[in-house]
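Reply to dn_fold:

You asked what the input looked like. This is it:
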Amino acid sequence: MQGMLRGKEGVMSLAQGIVHWAPPPAVAEAVARAAAEPDTSAYGADDGMAELRNRLAEKLQKENGLEGVSVMVTAGANQAYTNVVVAVLDAEDGAVLFAPYYFNHLMAIQMTGGSDRVVLGPVNKDFLPDAAWLEDKLAEPSAGPRIKMVTVVNPCNPTGVAMPADHLRRLSAICAKHDVWLIVDNTYENFTYEEEGHPAHTCVSGDHVVNIFSFSKAYGMMGWRVGYLSYPPRLHGELMKVQDTIAICPAIASQKAALAALGAGSAWVQEKVRGLSGNRRLVLGAIEAALGKDAVLGGSGAIYLMVKLPVEDDFRVVEWLTEKHRVCVIPGSACGSPGMVRVCYANLASAGCQEAAERLRAGLAELKERGVAA
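and this is what came back:
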C-alpha cells in the first residue's frame, strides 16, 4: 500500500489499521523523563521491565480473567506473534489460519519456512472461524504436516467481527482435545460495541493457549511498538530464546511509555472507542448507499468493515479508487478474500472521515454503475 501511495498527493486513507488519536498526555511526560535516565539507554530484561510485566499481570487478571500466566513484552503484537511461530512450530508442523486472515500472520509463518504448511480454514455465515470444520480437520488422519497451531483474531482483523465467548471456548476445547496450540490475537480487545448488541471481548486460558495483546490501537501508540504475550510457563524457555535472538529486549523508552499509558487506564481507552461510533456510521452509510446493505460484512468489533465488490479484481479496484477518487482501502486478496476490500474507520478524525467516506461512496457508486474502466 505504501508503494501504491508513494508520490500521490491528497489521497485519504481508510486503509491502514491505525487510530487517529495520540497517546495519553502522561506518555510524552514519561518519555521526556526517560531520556535523561541512564537505564533507558542500556539493555533491559529480555522479557521486559519487571515493573511493566507486573502491571500487565495485574491487568490480565483483572480485565481478562487470566491467572497463572507468564508475561513477555515485545516490540508490538506482530513481533509477539512471530516469537510464538518460531517457538512453537518446527519445520514439519502445520498451522491453521481462517480466511479472511490477518496478512501479517500469514507472512510470519511464510518467513519461517511454513508457506506450504498453512492450512486455510473457512468461516461460517456469521464470519466466525468454522468450529465444525476445525474439529473434523484436527480429527482426520494426517496426510500432510501435523497441525500444531491454530490462530484466531478477536475481534477480528480484517472482518471486524467480535467473537462470542461460547464460540471462542469451543475453539479452545477443540484445540485442547487434539493437543494443538491456540493463539488468540487480542489487539482489538477494547474495540467492542456491546451497547449495540454485539459481543463483549473475552479471553480463554489453558496450558495450550497463548494470548497476544497490543498498546498500538487502544492507546494510539502505533509507532512506539509495544505488545505483550500471555502464555503458559512451560513455553517460557523457548520464547526467551527467540526474544533474545530477535530483539534482545524491547526498547526501554517504549516500555516506560507503556507504563505511563497504563496509568490512564481502560476508562481513557473506552472514551476514545466510543468516539468512533460516528465514524463507523459515516463509513457504513457510504458503503450501503453505493452498494446496498448486503455488500457489508462484519463490523461488530475492531475498527474494520469488509465490503463485497461488484467485480472480482479487488487489487485493480483499490488502485482505481486511489487514482481517481483519492481514497485508499485494503484489497481483500491480501487477506485471502478476493473480490472484497477492507475499510478502516478509525484512522481519521470526524471531519476527515466524513470527506473520505464521501469519496468512497462516490467511487463505489461509479464502480457499480460503470466499472473501473470509467
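The mean pLDDT is 95.
Hope that clears it up.
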